[in-house]
Amino acid sequence: MRTYLVTGGAGFIGSNYIHYMFKKYGDDIRIINVDVLTYAGNLENLKAVENRDNYTFVRADICDKEAIAKIFAENDIDRVVHFAAESHVDRSIANPEVFVQTNVLGTAVMLNCAKAAWENADGTFKEGKKFLHVSTDEVYGSLPDDENAFFYETTPYDPHSPYSASKASSDMLVKAYMDTYKFPANITNCSNNYGPYQFPEKFIPLMINNALNGKKLPVYGDGKNVRDWLYVEDHAKAIDMVQEQGKLFETYNIGGHNEKQNIQILNIILDTLQEMLPEGDPRKELVSKDLITYVEDRKGHDRRYAIAPDKIKAEIGWEPETMFKEGIRKTIQWYFENEDWMKNATSGDYQKYYEAMYSNK
Ligand code: NAD
Ligand code: TYD
Fold first, then answer.
1. Is the distance from the beta carbon of residue 219 to the nearest atom of ligand 2 less than 6 Å?
2. Average pLDDT for residues 128-145, to the nearest whole number?
3. What does the alpha-carbon distance between residue 72 and residue 121 come to, in Å, rounded to a whole number?
4. How far is the centre of ligand 2, averaged over its atoms, from the C-alpha of 35 (Å)?
5. b or e along 151-162 (b: 16 or more beta carbons within 10 Å of the residue's beta carbon)?
6. Is the CB of 304 under 6 A from ligand 2?
7. 204-259 residue pLDDT tens
8. Which of 241, 297, 306, 349 is the right S-S partner for 221, CB 3.0 to 4.6 Å?
């Protein structure tokens, strides 16, 4: 039975990955989820799995060497899937240091502890051990408004935000471990994800939540920045396929071929909300395109991201499965059915964050 150490499993993608893995492998794997539970970590995301005998939650900081080394000492870990990170660009602009701390130092601790646990006396590594570093396409910088321009695995790194710079640094550390020690790892660089359990500071859940509450919909700049949106379960599947079928030491880009301007996404969300809300539901009156408000642009705002997922398709056979029309309906349905989740996520500290972040916009 393979034992997985998943970091950041209480966050958006990590929790979806854990659900995906238990759906796929059932009792044939064991998962240890290490998460310090920042504002973005929520154990409610894992209610459906928390009582499984093959699931363990450990509250620990990935920067805490002793805590992480202890997990490796007490368990024979076969796979590390490293999601834990500070993940929001706007927060990185306001407060970059914690991004360096968690994303760079935290990754160094994870690499070092895995290396210490997996290394043989002669410097080779125990058979079958694998580390997967989950990263972003934002490390490649920004593409021009040209629909034939894409990010490839060979595209030079050119990060602009403190978030993407910290993720680029963490990718470089993983590369350095692979090059220096032949440390058994892969890196995946994925485009923007959407789906259940996404914290409402990110574009899609923020817009769904604001629209349902009749609140303004703050669009940065001219609204024509392009992102390549991928349904989160497709990302979870790709991570598993890369780890089991990919070539060690390789990077794989994961993307949806679903490039859309922010304003297009927002219009689809508003139309879909109108379609899905039943007649007589008071929220139907609130959801309106009149709420769209163009606000001051994000500093250093990357114009366009787009992945060409040719390598992962050719070598591993992965392709995105969920079309945006279907994925956005599933996502909205999930938020309809999980109003309490949204209320908990948007109360308290989030309220303060939202007021501070959007007060001048
Ligand atoms: P998230 O912010 O929703 O979750 C991050 C999780 O990491 C939270 O549960 C948080 O508590 C935990 N965490 C943060 N600091 C920690 C620390 N010091 N020690 C232990 N746990 C800590 O993020 P997400 O959107 O799920 O992203 C997960 C990973 O995927 C990140 O590495 C991110 O860079 C990458 N990624 C995200 C996207 C996207 O669209 N969201 C796209 C590509 C790649
Ligand atoms: P976001 O979800 O923060 O992801 P990222 O910046 O990592 O791509 O933002 C997605 C896009 O939406 C990005 O171009 C910024 C834009 N955006 C808005 O226009 N308004 C908002 O309130 C937010 C949060 C984002």
1. yes
2. 97
3. 17
4. 25
5. bebebeeebbbb
6. no
7. 999 999 999 999 999 999 999 999 999 999 999 999 999 999 999 999 999 978 99
8. 297
CB neighbour class for 180 (10 Å; exposed up to 12, middle 13-18, buried from 19): exposed
pLDDT level of residue 350 (50, 70, 90 thresholds) = low
Q: Greater confidence, 352 or 265?
A: 265
Q: What is the mean pLDDT of the chain?
A: 96
Ligand 1 site residues, Cβ closer than 6 angstroms: 7-8, 10-14, 35-38, 40-41, 61-63, 83-87, 102, 106, 134-136, 167, 190, 192-193, 199
Give residues with Cβ within 8 angstroms of 240, minimum separation 6: 17, 20, 21, 24
Instruction: Report pLDDT for 119.
Output: 98
Does residue 230 have its Cβ closer than 6 Å to ligand 2? no
Mutate to test the pocket of ligand 1, among 38, 140, 190 (most ligand atoms within 8 A of CB): 38
The predicted pLDDT at position 290 comes to: 98
Mutate to test the pocket of ligand 2, among 137, 227, 265 (most ligand atoms within 8 A of CB): 227
Query: How many angstroms does the Cα of residue 87 sit away from the middle of ligand 1?
Result: 5
Distance 10 CA to ligand 1 centre (A): 9
C-alpha span between 184 and 261 (Å, rounded): 38
Q: Quote the ligand 1 centre to 289 CA distance (angstroms).
A: 31
Q: What is the CB neighbour count within 10 angstroms for residue 209?
A: 17
Residue 104 has pLDDT above 90, yes or no: yes
The Å distance, Cα 86 to ligand 2 centre, comes to 15
What integer is the mean pLDDT of 318-326? 97
In the beta sheet, which residues pair with residue 293?
218
Q: Per the structure block, which two tokens stand in for 54? A: 């093959």
Res 193: pLDDT? 98
Confidence check: pLDDT of 144 > 70: yes
Average pLDDT over residues 110-129: 98
- Ligand 2 atom at minimum distance from 302 CA: 14
Q: Which residues, at least 6 apart from 183, have a Cβ–Cβ distance to it below 8 Å?
A: 111, 114, 115, 125, 131, 174, 177
Name the token pair of 16: 């979806």
